[in-house]
Design goal:
Helices cover 56% and strands 15% of the residues. Among the domains are: 166 residues, no CATH class; 148 residues. By secondary structure, the protein is an alpha/beta fold.
């Protein structure tokens, strides 16, 4: 199919201006108010868009083989070696030490690959816009089908390597997770054994406590009843003495002091009774207290051992998270590298498997032999309300896309020998200047005004 020619200048709707106006705008933007040129050449840069069946996007290939892109790719370390060492180690302490000390995020380094002929810049915004054909000098094609096939193969090979790297990392994460999960399972089994052991001990102790309480109550009842009966019987005798003493006092046989002595004796005896009975109660309470304390100590020991296991499980979780985080760091790097590769394929409004596109540039050599170049522009039309207020020419347009890579090559490779294909377009270009002037731009209205001599 014929090549699709892109416009040099479009309006705000990305529609191409007329040929004469495109050339005029580009020349005005490049030279401003005062720069004069020795030569000006409209140059066409040949590109080929090749459709990628998998993504549906197009690879943009530079037929001049002047452009290239360098991308950096991660070289993974040998994870199989450390995994085989870990999986073959039966000593848990050594296994854990290996998991902790190994630098999972480390790599063997990075490889920088040059993709010659690959246009990485996104030309998508302008690819849908065709243009009336400009009088371009098209740069000769230097690429062969072999160059294009090599580029496509290199991209596909790198994409597969990166995809395999991501799969490898995911597999390592899965294997390490399995290893740690097995260790956590062992800790969980230890925790269950601890719970079972102490549950049995506590159950036995609680049963012993129930029996002891029943037994102690009976023993307490027997001893306390017997002792209390004896003690209170003596207390009754003391009460009798006091009663008789009070009668003697009423009869005048004894004094008040004698009765008080009896009451004092009663008070002391009651204290002795209370002390004796309390001592009996405390003896049996201490027996129960001893068992209760044993149960409390068993619970404390159970919780201490369980807490030790829980700490080990938490450490395993933290270790796994640390390893996974390190591996995910590498995985994200690989995913970014894969995305950079995929960005080589651009969406384009074409149906054909292969499309040739010509991108226009204006290249000039000024009065001081400086070489200037400009790529696709967007015309900034603004109506002037007063004819005598003219707008500055350096504001007439803006870069629609970043063509710095193209322009650097144009200046360095073709700037030393700028031909002139503008002079023969005087009538057309002058018409473009007139339109711009009428739209309020402070432009020179004839092409000879832009040349050092004509």
């Amino acid at each position: 199919m014929d090549s699709i020619h892109l416009p040099l200048v479009v309006d705000s709707n990305k529609q191409p201006l007329s040929v004469e106006k495109q050339i005029a705008v580009a020349l005005v933007r490049l030279t401003g108010r005062e720069i004069k040129i020795k030569a000006g050449e409209l140059i066409g840069w040949p590109l080929t868009l090749v459709k990628n069946e998998k993504s549906g996007g197009y690879l943009i290939f530079d037929q001049t083989m002047s452009l290239m892109i360098k991308l950096q790719f991660t070289i993974l370390q040998n994870y199989d070696r450390i995994l085989n060492t870990i999986q073959g180690n039966k000593n848990e302490s050594e296994l854990l030490a290996l998991l902790k000390s190994f630098k999972w995020h480390a790599t063997k380094g990075y490889e920088e690959v040059t993709f010659r002929g690959l246009v990485y810049s996104d030309l998508t915004p302008i690819l849908s816009t065709g243009s009336p054909q400009l009088p371009l000098t098209v740069i000769p094609k230097e690429a062969s089908q072999f160059d294009l096939d090599t580029l496509i193969q290199d991209l596909n090979v790198k994409e597969k390597i990166i995809t395999d790297n991501i799969t490898t990392i995911e597999s390592v994460v899965s294997k390490v997770t399995t290893i740690v999960t097995i260790l956590k399972g062992k800790r969980a089994e230890e925790r269950k054994q601890i719970e079972d052991k102490y549950d049995q001990l506590l159950s036995a102790k609680n049963e012993e406590l129930k029996q002891k309480v029943n037994e102690t109550k009976k023993n307490l009842e027997n001893e306390l009843s017997s002792e209390a009966k004896k003690l209170y019987e003596k207390l009754a005798n003391i009460e009798v003495l006091i009663g008789k003493g009070e009668i003697d006092k009423e009869a005048g046989f004894v004094t008040e002091k004698d009765v008080d002595a009896l009451n004092t004796m009663k008070s002391k005896y009651i204290s002795e009774v209370n002390s004796t009975l309390t001592s009996i109660k405390n003896k049996y309470k201490n027996e129960i207290r001893t068992l209760v304390n044993e149960i409390r100590l068993l619970n404390q020991q159970k919780q201490k051992e369980l807490e030790g296991i829980n700490i080990k499980i938490k450490e395993l979780d933290e270790l796994l998270q640390s390893v996974v985080n390190q591996l995910n760091t590498i995985k994200r790097t690989c995913e970014e590298e894969l995305n950079k590769l995929k960005l080589a394929y651009k969406r384009a409004p074409y149906m054909d498997e292969k499309v040739d596109v010509i991108v226009p540039f204006l290249l000039v050599k000024d009065y001081a032999d400086r070489v200037l170049a400009i790529g696709i522009q967007m015309y900034k039309y603004r109506k002037s309300f007063f004819g005598f207020f003219k707008k500055e020419p350096n504001e007439i347009s803006e870069d629609l896309l970043n063509f710095n890579d193209f322009i650097s090559v144009l200046i360095s490779k073709y700037g030393h020998n700028v031909s002139d294909n503008l002079r023969q377009l005087k009538a057309q270009v002058d018409k473009g200047f007139e339109e711009l002037y009428d739209e309020g731009w402070n432009v020179r209205k004839r092409i000879e005004e832009y040349y050092v001599f004509l």
